[in-house]
Amino acid sequence: MNIAVFASHGGSDLQAIIDGCKSGKVNSKVKLVISNNSNSMALQRAENEGILGYHISQKVIPDNGKLDNKILSILDENEIDMIFLAGYLKMLGTSVLQKYSNRIFNIHPALLPKYGGKGMYGMNVHKAVIEAREKISGVTIHRVNEKYDSGEIVAQAEVPVMPNDTPEELAARVLEREHSFLIEVVNDIISGNIKLGE
């Protein structure tokens, strides 16, 4: 299967998928990377690995319709089977969501439906989890629809919250689990345990 990864910043989840493919743990290929941030580490990681990388944002293409069409044409040209949003901080357009319905997955650093929605990303999530005195956090992988973090949950992994955790300590522990969990879930998709949309 050909995978496209969308990422806005560091791209460590992207690297986990790339490494899984290279090592043979995942029988797929990361065919391209799209970022809405020209300075993202994700684009640098793509370049380092010889993977096609694209900076597509409203700075480059101000018109939303044209921006969506550009994304669609790149996905089509590269025969993409599934899309992973790995810290991609922009809502995908309706035409992309429709064309790839049930084949777009997002990685969220908490156990949805808690701590999801607009503005709930990165350190904001971990701060909220600690402020609520949760004992368990984790990783959620869900399908993407028109509303932030509300698509069907396909898999979750729990990560304990330690009594004296800082948001940064919790974030590091969750991210470590994200990397291994991603590989498990991608394999479940490839094997058909998690169905892709038609």
Automatic annotation (TrEMBL):
Domain Formyl transferase N-terminal: start-end pairs: 1-186
KW Manganese (keyword) present: no
Pathway the protein takes part in: Purine metabolism; IMP biosynthesis via de novo pathway; N(2)-formyl-N(1)-(5-phospho-D-ribosyl)glycinamide from N(1)-(5-phospho-D-ribosyl)glycinamide (10-formyl THF route): step 1/1
Keyword Transferase: yes
Coiled-coil blocks: none
EC number: 2.1.2.2
Function: Catalyzes the transfer of a formyl group from 10-formyltetrahydrofolate to 5-phospho-ribosyl-glycinamide (GAR), producing 5-phospho-ribosyl-N-formylglycinamide (FGAR) and tetrahydrofolate.
Name of the molecule in the record: Phosphoribosylglycinamide formyltransferase
